[in-house]
Every structure is written in C-alpha cells, then in structure tokens.
Design goal:
This protein is an alpha/beta fold and 608 residues long. The protein folds into three domains: 3-180 and 219-399, no CATH class; 183-216, no CATH class; 423-599, IlvD/EDD C-terminal domain-like (Glucose Oxidase, domain 1), CATH 3.50.30.80. The chain has helices at residues 3-15, 17-32, 42-49, 54-61, 87-97, 113-116, 125-140, 157-166, 187-198, 204-214, 226-236, 252-267, 278-281, 284-296, 303-313, 320-329, 344-350, 352-362, 457-465, 482-485, 494-502, 562-567, 588-593; strands spanning 67-72, 101-107, 147-151, 173-176, 386-391, 394-399, 423-426, 432-436, 446-454, 473-477, 507-511, 524-529, 546-550, 555-558. It has an eight-stranded mixed sheet. A four-stranded parallel sheet has the order 2-1-3-4, sandwiched between helices. Strands 5-6 form a two-stranded antiparallel ribbon. Strand 5 (386-391) and strand 6 form a beta hairpin. Helix 1 (3-15) runs antiparallel to helix 16 (320-329) and helix 9 (187-198) crosses helix 21. The longest helix has 16 residues, at 17-32. It starts with a helix and ends in a 15-residue tail after the last helix. The protein binds 6-phosphogluconic acid (6PG) and iron/sulfur cluster. Residues 78-80, 112-114, 154-155, 220-221, 225, 227 line the site of iron/sulfur cluster. Iron/sulfur cluster (SF4) is lined by residues 78-80, 112-114, 154-155, 220-221, 225, 227. Its EC number is 4.2.1.12. Keywords: 4Fe-4S, Carbohydrate metabolism, Gluconate utilization, Iron, Iron-sulfur, Lyase, Metal-binding. Belongs to the IlvD/Edd family. It catalyses: 6-phospho-D-gluconate = 2-dehydro-3-deoxy-6-phospho-D-gluconate + H2O. Pathway: Carbohydrate metabolism; Entner-Doudoroff pathway.
Length: 608
C-alpha cells in the first residue's frame, strides 16, 4: 500500500472515530429492528401493498421475501436520466422472476446543470443535492424494504441519493445508471464553436447546431464532468456491479446489468446469508478509494464538496488536505475531455474502469480489501478488474484487459500523463481554495495580474462583450458562495475567458463559487472559503490589486500592503435580487443553514 494512501486513511479513521462510531451504532440498531416491514402494523402493511398484484401482496404479507425499494431520479430534462423511465417495470419483472418483489418507493427531483448553466436555476443546483437526500429518505421511510436500488446519474443526484440512502445504511443499496449517450460532435469542437460565438463570429443558429450535435440523444453527456465522475465513484467505491458505469443505454448489456443489479440486491438482504448493508460498503477505505479514483481520472472539482458531504453522512470526516495529499501521490492516468480530446466512450473502449482499477490496485493506491455489492464476483475491489459481457443471453464477467487499448486516453501507471492527480489546495490571504490543473496547460498554471472584480457572472460577460477585458487579468467573481446565492457553477464564463487566454493574455478566475466538472483550460481557484458573505477576505479585493495564483506551489494571494489589507473591510452585498424568482425564495432556510465549502456545503450536520 502506498504509504501516503495508508497515512491519509489512518488519519481519516482517527479524525472521525467518534462520529463514525455513532453512525455505526445507529445502523446496527436499525439492523436489529429488521426485517423492516415486520415492525409495521397490519394497517401500515395493507396500505403499503394495497396497489400490488395478488402475487406481490402474497409475498409481502410475510417477511421472508425480499422487497426492493426503487428510488428513481427519472425525468425528461436530463438526457442521462430519460432512459430510467422504463427501468422500474424491468426491475419488478426481474424481482418477480426470483421470487422477490420490487416497489417504486419514490421519485427524487433532478436538475440538469446543462439546462440551468448560466441561468438563475443554477442557484438551486447545489441545494438540490440535499433536497434529493431528503427525498430519498422520504421514499425509504415507508420501511417496507429489505434493499434499495438508486436510479440516478448526474451531478447532485448520485451524491444526494447516496447521502439519503446512508441514513438507511442498514439496507443494501446498489446504484443503477443508464450510461453515456453515443459520441457526437467532439467536445473540443463544441468548445471551439462556443468561443467563435462568444467573439460574435457566428450566430445562434450555428451554435445551436453544434450544441445539438454534441448533446444528441438519451444518455449521459460524454465529457468527463461530475455525472461521469459519479459513475467512476460508484464503481470504485463498490456500489455498482462491476463494469456498469459506461455501458450505453438501450443496449442488451445495459438491460442485463439492470436486471442483474436487481437480482444482486435481493441476494444481499438480511433475509439471506450474504447480507451486505450500505454502511459496511461505505467506510473510510471506500472514501479514500473514491478520492484516488477521482484524482487518477481528473474528475470533477465538485467532488471536493460532494464526497466530503457523502462521507459526513457516513460519520466520516474528510478535508481538502486529504485530497491535496492524495493528489501528490496519485498519477494522472486518463485524458478525457476537458482533460483531453477523448470522451467517456473512448475511455471505456480503451479499457475503462476495469483497467483503471487494475492499474491503481497494482500501484498500491487503492484498498483492495473492501466490502462491495459484488462479493459474489470476487474478493473486494479485485472483482472490479472484471468486466461484463453477454454470452448469448447470459450475463457473465471476465477479467478486463491488462493493456490499454489507447495509451493516449488511458495510460499505465508506469507511463502516466502526470505523476500527480492535478488537484491542489491553494492558501494565502484570500482564504483556502481548490484548483484542478489537469485540464490547464503548464504555462497557464501561474498567473500574476491585476484584479477585475465582479459581483456576478453577467457583469463579467458584459465587460467581456464591451472589450474591457483585453489584457492580463485575474477575474474575481465574489458573493457566489453557498450562503450568498447557493454557490452556482460559473462555467458559462469559460468560452469568454478561453478567448482571452487564446489571445495570449494571462487569465485566471478566482471565486467562492463553483465551476463545472466540464470546465477546464482557464486556471480557476474556486470554492474559496470562508465565502465573501461570511466575511471572507476575497471580498476585500479591489480592481487593480495584484493577485498571484500559483497552482504549482499552492499559493493564492492579493499582493497588497499588509497594513492597508488589514484595514480594509469586506463590503456588504445586496443580494435581495437573487433571493427571489425561479423558486429561490423557497431556499432561504438552506442559505442560512448551509455550512462552508470545505465541510461539503451541506445543510446536514454530522453531529445530528
Ligand atoms: O459539473 C458538471 O459536470 C457540469 O455541471 C455539467 O453537468 C453541466 O451540465 C455542464 O454545464 C455541461 O457543460 P456545458 O454547459 O458546457 O454544456
Ligand atoms: S451531464 Fe450535465 S448536462 Fe448532461 S444530462 Fe447530466 S446534468 Fe445534464
């Protein structure tokens, strides 16, 4: 085992010893109270199966037959979730075939960050993760279930489903995705067309044509953003069946995996002899495996929030220094857009998750001795070096490739794209921030330039359109933290800042807001904590201050005379205009309760 991975794991275990022990005690108590529908009154139970057919009713009257609760994030707004609409019927059919039952326990809301990117709706996006967690709990609180299947893929949905399911950690839980859409217009070409539009060189018609060729059918968008980082995480944390992450929707293999996930869920309930509750799968080693997988694959910066919040829900305490220290020893093994030209379909074809896990296990960078939902397919994480295929109609697993099909997309640990994972924590007199450098060219990783201060992304775009940004600059977009306006992604700024960078200007973005997992080429110091509304020093920066962002040495600072800097006040902000409209008025309690970015920007507290 790599000594740093071992040391970080130990310190996470030590840091969370008390909260983890409280969590486990609660889960053990819940486990003892099972089988769960057995504690319901006749009235409760009759309500619970009133709408079932006679076969399911008969199965549910006793407590010997497994009942699987389906929690689904289906809607037509996310191309990644559209295929899920047909899953419940297939799951119910697969359950009945093995003498079990499946019931649709509840639906959870799901926001497409692509539809809301740059729009007011994006200011609900991060909070929607915790709403999804609560909705998952509402669904499972019927307490009719011996296991759960979570159907979801995208950004805040998988983290929300997992946080919610962790409050039912005594249940076995398997995640069931729909897979990526087939490759369309290459993501890099899409980004180039956007920059032409940002410069006024093409019209909306040409832009929409390009966007529609990139995002063209059901399935997850093919860039390596937060959604596909989620799929990687569910695999490497042992919450998918092996090889589930990147099989395309509407294929026989996809359907077979959905059915096999159903069968597996029924096999690992407390009613059988292979009981595998979620709380045993999601432990400190699984969280460290998740962070290592995120770093090795150049995954989304949003997981410096979501993985922290997920860990907290399991009583585990993770800090950005854990990410930072693991990044220093985790080689970068993939180049998937925005970290390269390839997309997740190309990554999957080059060897995908089975080869990535094989390489990281062989490098002593992953804990192999973990509990997963696929214990029947192999010991611990070693089951995940296997990949599924159809032998006629039969789903089987075989060892995945030992060599990459394309070392330009998926490298071996002996010849990585970079010796480190490209995620850094930045320190200085502006607070703590994270930056992902895996998509930033070496020559752009240090920027020292005058600040241009904005209180919204639209203000920045107006300045760009009026030609006021044609110079070296550090764009400060402040009052974008969770308490201020829900910590939106500011990915809409990427094309404009990319144009300035391509013109040869030294450009960087510094904000207490977020960027998309799909953001890349422009250096961005994000998630600054404390946020401006909490008195964070980022609020003190004025136009013209010299700002230094040095991703190599982890520095982010305003080079202002110390006495002057100490004398400056953080200005107050009039945010009334962004606290109404598009439902934002309903989220005031969450803006008040939400904790800081480094604690996961969540409204839930570990000590609850
Ligand atoms: O974190 C992420 O991965 C993003 O939120 C992603 O889900 C979002 O949809 C982007 O906005 C898509 O990229 P474009 O906006 O460039 O299409
Ligand atoms: S990846 Fe992003 S844009 Fe694509 S469906 Fe998911 S949330 Fe929407």
């Amino acid at each position: 085992m790599n000594p740093t991975v071992a040391e970080v794991t130990d310190r996470i275990i030590k840091r969370g010893r008390e909260t983890r022990s409280t969590y486990l005690q609660r889960m053990n108590e819940a486990e003892q109270r099972g089988p769960h529908r057995g504690v319901l009154s006749c009235g409760n139970l009759a309500h619970g199966f009133a709408a079932c057919n006679i076969g399911d009713k008969t199965s549910l009257r006793g407590d010997a037959k497994a009942n699987i609760g389906i929690v689904s994030a289906y809607n037509d707004m996310l191309s990644a979730h559209e295929p899920l609409q047909h899953y419940p019927d297939r799951i119910k059919e697969a359950a009945r075939e093995i003498g079990a039952v499946a019931q649709f326990a509840g639906g959870v809301p799901a926001m497409c960050d692509g539809v809301t990117q740059g729009q007011p709706g994006m200011e609900l996006s991060l909070f929607s993760r915790d709403v999804i967690a609560m909705s998952t709990a509402v669904s499972l609180s019927h307490n009719m279930f011996d296991a759960a299947l979570c159907l979801g893929v995208c950004d805040k949905i998988v983290p929300g489903l997992l946080i919610g399911a962790l409050t039912f950690g005594h249940l076995p839980v398997i995640f069931v995705p729909a897979g990526p859409m087939p490759s369309g217009l290459p993501n890099k070409k899409k980004a180039e067309v956007r920059q032409l539009y940002a410069q006024g060189k093409i019209g909306r018609g040409e832009l929409l044509d390009a966007e529609s060729k990139s995002y063209h059918s059901p399935g997850t968008c093919t860039f390596y953003g937060t959604a596909n980082s989620n799929q990687m995480l569910m695999e490497i944390m042992g919450l998918h069946l092996p090889g589930t992450a990147f099989v395309n929707p509407g294929t026989p293999l996809r359907d077979a995996l959905t059915r096999a996930s159903t069968v597996r869920a029924a096999q690992i309930t407390a009613l059988g002899d292979d009981y595998t509750p979620l709380y045993r799968v999601l432990d400190e080693r699984a969280v460290v495996n998740g962070i290592v997988g995120l770093l090795a694959s150049g995954g989304s910066t949003n997981h410096t929030l979501h993985l922290v919040a997920i860990a907290r829900a399991a009583g585990i305490q993770v800090t950005w220094d854990d990410f930072h220290d693991l990044s220093a020893v985790t080689p970068s093994l993939t180049r998937i857009y925005p970290n390269g030209q390839a997309d997740v379909n190309h990554f999957h074809a080059a060897g995908g998750m089975s080869l990535l896990i094989r390489e990281l296990l062989a490098g002593g960078l992953l804990h192999g001795d973990v509990t997963t939902v696929a214990g029947h397919l192999g010991e611990g994480l070693h089951a995940y070096t296997r990949e599924p295929f159809l032998d006629g109609e039969t789903l089987v697993w075989r060892e995945g490739p030992e060599e990459s099909g394309d070392p330009e997309i998926l490298a071996s640990r002996s010849a990585p794209f970079s010796p480190d994972g490209g995620l850094k924590v930045l320190h200085g007199n502006l607070g703590r921030a994270v930056i992902k450098t895996s998509a930033v060219r070496e020559e752009h990783r240090t920027v020292q330039a005058p600040a241009m201060v904005f209180d919204s992304q639209d203000q920045l775009l107006d300045a760009f359109k009026s030609g006021k940004m044609e110079r070296d600059l550090v764009a400060i977009v402040r009052f974008q933290g969770p308490k201020a306006n829900g910590m939106p992604e500011l990915h809409k700024l990427t094309p404009s800042l990319g144009v300035l960078q391509d013109k040869g200007f030294k450009v960087a973005l510094v904000t207490d807001g977020r960027m998309s997992g799909a953001s890349g080429k422009v250096p961005a110091a994000i998630h600054i904590t404390p946020e401006c509304l909490d008195g964070g020093p980022l609020g003190k920066v004025r136009d013209g201050d010299i700002i230094r962002l040095d991703a190599t040495h982890g520095i982010l600072e305003a080079r202002v005379d110390e006495t002057e800097w100490a004398a400056r006040e953080v200005p107050s902000a009039d945010l009334a205009a962004v606290h109404h409209g598009m439902g934002r008025e309903l989220f005031a309690p969450m803006r008040t309760m939400v904790c800081g970015a480094e604690q996961g920007a969540t409204v839930f507290s570990i000590s609850d």
